[in-house]
Automatic annotation (TrEMBL):
Keywords assigned: Hydrolase, Membrane, Transmembrane, Transmembrane helix
Transmembrane regions listed in the UniProt entry: 6-25, 32-52, 64-88, 108-128, 140-166, 178-196
Source organism of this protein record: Thermoanaerobacterium aotearoense SCUT27
Protein name, entry field: Metal dependent phosphohydrolase
One of the record's GO molecular function terms: hydrolase activity
Recorded superkingdom: Bacteria
Pfam families: HD_5 (PF13487), MASE9 (PF20972)
Length: 421
């Protein structure tokens, strides 16, 4: 980890642990039983996250934490949220994740940032005149503002962490990487405020009433993730089928995927956007499935007719993917990944900004990996030689914008710019 990252994590942890310690001494002794019950409920909800994609999830405990700070106040809310997060137990790909098998600094950071977020939301609610234990309709606006503060602190603290990890700009991370959370935030804020109002009238039965809908929402998102996973499994199967046919490009698609991710980071793409480019990287040569093996594996130079046949694979890939709704943008990136900036590429001969940036990313990653890999007609170039060949192609094969991204990605991740699959 970089020095800045260590300092940031240390700062958040120091603030969070100090706040939790202070809150423990400030809680109302009459709230102990409520705190224990809400901690258990928060821990259960933390253990059942809603997965947005393979790397990002949102916890339904947001609604419980919001309910805690509105019902009991900022100190009790911070204690409930942090201890609930500490006690989570999750099943991730068949492996149990809990505080005992998670690096200590990750656990401390997580409980600290959530304690800070909940406390700041609670203080905001209290400062605006909101009263604990009574929300609708008198303090509804205050409750909505407090829920926004919770979300902004929570996402903001994490966005700074991602910035230090990826070197992306703070605003691009907040706007793009957390765009997916807006609808979930609005829904869970609504549930949290509604739970609070029902709890005031009916007591702990409110937890039972709302636990079922929360579980149902999680289940629907889980089904969506499983559907997405089936797409990925199909993509991997297609990639393996192609590599089994073309022995000279074994591991090529995975290498292109890896390099494409670095370029996407430099372009400021969101995680969801990057994920689609990764899929395109895995599928960029899928059209070669329709090419006969004696051409794909020919040890010598291809004839003009054979090369013209090979040049049809972007169109074949487009045709294979065009009827898959999930890949509506990917199909174009696959079609255009052999186009040149000066218009001398194929299959359509488009040029300049007509070529999508995503297709340019695939193209430059494709060429670099091809250069550093052995081919039947030549040995692999060194990393430095391949870099020079690509940079010297600025203005002809590659645009100035993609060369700029390539240079930055190469300098930051030089050791990973190699064919190693």
């Amino acid at each position: 980890m970089s020095k800045k990252l260590i300092l940031y994590i240390s700062f958040v942890v120091a603030c969070g642990l100090s706040l939790i310690t202070y809150s423990v001494f400030k809680i109302n002794p009459h709230h102990i039983s409520d705190i224990v019950i809400l901690i258990i409920f928060a821990a259960v909800c933390e253990s059942l996250p809603i997965y947005i994609n393979t790397n990002v999830s949102v916890s339904v405990a947001y609604a419980v934490d919001l309910m805690a700070l509105l019902l009991l106040g900022p100190y009790e809310g911070a204690v409930i949220a942090s201890i609930g997060n500490l006690l989570l137990i999750r099943d991730i790909n068949g492996k149990i994740k809990c505080a005992l098998n998670t690096p200590y600094y990750k656990t401390l950071f997580n409980i600290s940032q959530i304690a800070i977020s909940v406390f700041m939301a609670g203080i905001t609610y209290k400062y605006l005149g909101g009263q604990s234990g009574y929300i609708y309709p008198k303090y509804l606006v205050e409750a909505i503002i407090a829920s926004c503060v919770y979300y902004l602190f929570n996402s903001g603290i994490v966005a700074v962490l991602i910035k230090l990890l990826t070197n992306k700009s703070f605003m691009s991370i907040w706007i793009m990487d957390f765009k997916w959370g807006t609808i979930n935030f609005l829904f869970l804020a609504f549930i949290g405020i509604l739970m609070t109002s029902v709890f005031v009238k009916f007591g702990y039965i409110a937890l039972l009433i709302f636990f079922v809908p929360l579980i149902m929402v999680r289940y629907m998102f889980k089904l969506n993730m499983e559907l997405k996973q089936s797409y990925y499994d199909t993509i991997n199967a297609l990639t393996k089928a192609l590599e089994a046919k073309d022995r000279y490009t074994l591991g090529h698609s995975k290498s292109v995927e890896k390099l494409a991710v670095y370029l996407c980071r430099e372009a400021g793409f969101s995680e969801a956007h990057t994920e689609m480019v990764r899929i395109a990287a895995l599928l960029h040569d899928v059209g070669k499935i329709g090419i006969v093996e004696n051409i794909l594996n020919k040890p010598g130079k291809l004839s003009k007719e054979e090369y013209d046949h090979i040049k049809q694979h972007p169109v074949s890939g487009y045709e294979i993917l065009k009827d898959v709704p999930f890949l509506k943008n990917v199909r174009y990136w696959v079609r255009y990944h052999h186009e040149w900036y000066n218009g001398n590429g194929y299959p359509d001969g488009i040029s300049g900004r007509q070529i999508p940036l995503e297709a340019e990313i695939l193209a430059i990653a494709d060429v670099f990996d091809a250069l550093v890999s052995d081919r039947p007609y030549r040995n692999a170039y060194t990393r430095e030689e391949a870099y020079k060949i690509i940079v010297d192609s600025e203005g002809t094969q590659f645009s100035p914008r993609i060369i700029k991204l390539f240079k930055r990605a190469y300098e930051k991740n030089k050791e990973d710019f190699k064919h190693d699959f």
